[in-house]
Amino acid sequence: MPSNMNNTPRPKWRGWLKSMAIFIIMFMVASTALEAWRNRHLNQMQISATQSAFTTIDGQKINIFKDSYDQTVLVYVWATWCGSCKIVSPMINWLNNQQLFNTKIITIAMRSGDDRHLHAYLNMKGYNFPVVNDNRNLLTQQWKLSRSPTILIIKDGKIQDTTAGLITPPGLLARLAWVDMK
Question: What is the structure's pLDDT at 26?
Answer without folding.
Answer: 79
